[in-house]
Amino acid sequence: MKLPVYLYGCPVLRETAKDLEPGNPDLKKLVEDMFSTMYLSEGVGLAAPQIGRSERLVVIDADVLADTFPECKGRKFVLINPEVEILDGESISRAEGCLSLPGISEEVKRVEHIRLRWLDEDFQPHEEEISGFLARIVQHEVDHLYGRLYIDHLSPLRKQFIRTKLHNILSGKTRCDYPAKYPPKKRK
Ligand code: NI
Question: Is the pTM for the entire model greater than 0.85?
Answer without folding.
Answer: yes
